[in-house]
Amino acid sequence: MTVQRATTTLWRPTGPAELELVRELDWRAWPPRLPEQPIFYPVLNEEYAVRIARDWNVRHDGAGFVTRFEVDTEFLRRYPVRQAGGRTILELWVPADELDTFNAHIVGTIQVVREFH
Predict the structure, then answer these.
(1) pLDDT of 62-117, one tens digit each?
(2) Going by C-beta distance under 8 Å and a sequence separation of 6 or more, which residues neighbour residue 71?
(3) What is the pTM of this model?
(4) In the chain, how long is the greatest CA-to-CA distance?
(5) Can you count the helices (H) and strands (E) in the chain?
């Protein structure tokens, strides 16, 4: 009998360069943060991810992508939900040095669900 663990859906807005690195990791992990990026920010709702991908990534990178992925719910309890603005602007703050552990708790693959140019 297989026990299926509970998962939480997260989204991440991303530009083309980061998306290519995710592709190189077989859609199963997020790449290490750059030195000037001490935090990895997945977001808790698609609407917020769309706004960032469409309004910020397109302007700065020429394209923006919204990704969706599942993470073990029990593991995520270590990261408090942060409200970064309005009521629906919710994100998790994962320290860069914990990203390998975070990636190990991704269930399934990272999927592109929206694309903006």
Answers:
(1) 999 999 999 999 999 999 998 887 777 899 999 999 999 999 999 999 999 999 99
(2) 7, 8, 10, 42, 102, 105, 106, 107
(3) 0.92
(4) 49
(5) 5, 7
Please name the helix (run of DSSP H) or strand (run of DSSP E) that holds residue 116, with its range, or none.
strand 106-116
Name residue, tokens 């719910």.
73
Structure tokens at 94: 């994962």
Torsional class of 101: left (φ above 0), alpha (ψ -120 to 50), beta (otherwise): alpha
Q: Domain residues of the chain, as ranges?
A: 7-116
| CA pair distance 78, 8, nearest whole angstrom | 13
Q: Which CATH architecture has domain 7-116?
A: Alpha-Beta Barrel (3.20)
Strand partners, 33: none
64 in Cβ contact with 13 (< 8 Å): yes
